[in-house]
Specification:
alpha/beta; Spore Coat Polysaccharide Biosynthesis Protein SpsA, Chain A; 3-stranded mixed β-sheet; disordered N terminus; binds 2-acetamido-2-deoxy-beta-D-glucopyranose; Nucleotide-diphossugar_trans
């Protein structure tokens, strides 16, 4: 091995070719062996780290070896000097720093990065390049790796979101088996609720809960959990609205799984006879949501999204729920239930953990809705959950009407005074804003059902205690922040986010809170091998 270094105007580090080739050969063997052990997921960050650290160690070591050659005769001595930082060559260091800064500021678009550290060493040593070239090469290599890591994160995020789209085979099976049961078993077609309980459906003395869903097992968990934890389950009346295709299996499930003394009504959208006006409104809302979906789908395919947060926003807009009529129909609840005056609206991805009957007795102070605000750090403290987190305050339409620092309320569990709602223009205003947003090129708010609802219900919401609801159990990165005690104490937990507990990607530590309400001894659940 032969080193050459000039100390005045230091520009060149040369190592003889044979030695470098041997080192490279050895190195690449090692990388392949290591590659087999390290999963592809961890490989990129590790490579990146190595790429950052190793060149410096290598250089520093090389310099020290050279400097120490005369004074040190053993590795121990070199090691000691290396660690103690005793450096007799500030010039070389300054030179290197200058080269790195130059590389950082310089524009080296033509520079090709090395594929690996070995290649980098190989190129720098074999061509006898100077420090500047080395710095540029290293920069190109790091940028290349950064891009790879970014692209891998991008991919991973897309796959994760895609996983939230498919209906699991087992749930599909449940739907089919129950539809079959509806066809062959008169019990499964029995009137729901039985004739003696029909009068309860519009009786204000009972506590009415509304659920809009096409997911049978989710509905069953909401109903079972609410009934099991209710002090007076016989007071509860569930109104489940579903679509035409889910109507028969949903009916069959609740007709054959008698829910203690509570009353369950299952209605299909096809059974509604709406006025022309409501029909037109619903149709328009659906069309707008399809346009929104197409818009984000197109943008997602065409645009190179800069960072994962932006991409998540797009993927969020493309979630199955964004096209589901049932998801958007919540703004038509007064029309869906013309005979009811006060209801509690539950999303299908919640679990009721305590008695919630006092919700119906809450005084809403004349407001239309009682909702929980995401203010876990105090009444007026709601970081990341203000109007400005949902609406675009750079837009004059938004900034002239609303206050960005106002806290946003949450969906999941809401009380609605339908009588008060009918006296307002909320539904009308929601439609108008939806149209305005479309006209403004979808620039007014982030995709989702909440932002336009924040606008339409502005000034109509009475805050209720945050001990009623914990949300975000369907987001990956939220999972560490919620303490288990708080989860146990809270009345309702909400699995909003892509990681639904019935999906493969559900967050394991939260799933048990949900699946303890699944009746795994039920014959359909067993036949479809539903297990979590
Ligand atoms: C609803 O809107 C109409 C027309 O825009 C208006 O005349 C009426 O006062 C509004 N009603 C309420 C309660 O705001
Ligand atoms: C917010 O509104 C501004 C002003 O109209 C617009 O330029 C911008 O693109 C909007 N932002 C988003 C994310 O739509
Ligand atoms: C669970 O299903 C079994 C079998 O259908 C039934 O006997 C039992 O009552 C159900 N349990 C609950 C809590 O609904």
């Amino acid at each position: 091995m032969k080193f050459y270094i000039s100390t005045k105007g230091i520009k060149r580090v040369t190592i003889s070719n044979a030695a470098a080739a041997a080192a490279a050969g050895k190195g690449s063997n090692k990388t392949t062996a290591a590659g087999r052990r390290i999963s592809s997921r961890t490989l990129l960050p590790v490579l990146l780290l190595l790429a950052i650290v190793l060149p410096f160690l290598f250089l520093r070591f090389a310099i020290l070896v050279l400097e120490s050659a005369s004074a040190c005769s053993s590795i121990d001595c070199i090691g000691w000097r290396f660690l103690s930082g005793g450096d007799a060559s500030p010039k070389l260091r300054d030179e290197l720093i200058r080269a790195l800064i130059e590389a950082k500021d310089g524009n080296n678009v033509n520079e090709e990065g090395a594929e690996s550290f070995n290649q980098l060493v190989n190129e720098v040593t074999s061509k006898g390049q100077d420090l500047k070239a080395f710095a540029f090469k290293t920069k190109a290599m790091l940028s290349q790796m950064e891009r790879k890591v970014e692209s891998a994160r991008h991919q991973e995020s897309v796959y994760w979101h895609l996983a939230s789209h498919g209906v699991p085979k087992t749930l599909h099976c449940l739907s089919l088996k129950l539809a079959e049961e509806y066809a062959v078993n008169a019990m499964a077609r029995a009137r729901l609720p039985p004739p003696e309980h029909v009068s309860r459906l519009a009786d204000p003395a009972f506590r009415h809960l509304v659920l809009l869903t096409d997911n049978i097992i989710a509905a069953s968990v909401v109903v079972s959990s609410a009934v099991e934890n209710a002090a007076n389950p016989e007071k509860l009346v569930f109104h489940i609205v579903t679509d035409k295709k889910t109507y028969t299996p949903m009916h069959a499930w609740f007709a054959t799984n008698s829910i203690k003394s509570a009353v369950v009504e299952v209605k299909g959208l096809h059974q509604y006879d709406w006025s022309e006006e409501v029909n037109a409104g619903v149709k328009e809302m659906l069309q707008i949501n399809q346009l929104i979906w197409k818009h984000y789908h197109k943008k997602f395919k065409e645009e190179k999204l800069e960072y994962v947060g932006e991409q998540d926003r797009y993927l969020g807009a493309l979630r199955p729920g964004s096209l589901s009529l049932l998801n958007h129909l919540r703004i038509y609840i007064p029309e869906l239930f013309p005979d009811l005056n006060k209801i509690v609206f539950l999303d299908d991805d919640v679990v009721v953990q305590h008695d919630i009957s006092s919700l119906w007795e809450l005084d809403l102070n004349g407001k239309v809705s009682g909702s929980v605000f995401k203010s876990w750090c105090g009444d007026t403290c709601c970081p990341d959950s203000k109007y400005k987190n949902y609406l675009n305050f750079s837009h004059p339409f938004i900034s002239s009407h609303f206050n960005g620092d106002q806290c946003a309320w949450l969906y999941g569990m809401n009380i609605f005074d339908l009588e008060a709602w009918r006296r307002t223009n909320i539904t009308h205003s929601y439609r108008q804003w939806l149209k305005l947003n479309l006209k403004s090129g979808l620039a007014l708010w982030n995709p989702g059902v909440l932002p336009p609802a924040l606008i339409a219900f502005d000034g109509h919401v009475h805050p209720i205690d945050s001990k009623w609801l914990v949300t975000d159990l369907g987001y990956r990165y939220q999972s560490q922040e919620i303490s288990f005690e708080r989860l146990q104490e809270v009345a309702v937990i909400h699995f909003n986010g892509p990681a639904k507990p019935w999906l493969e990607i559900g967050v394991p530590q939260f799933r048990s809170l949900w699946n303890r309400y699944v009746n795994f001894s039920d014959k359909f659940i067993r036949r479809c091998r539903i297990t979590w």
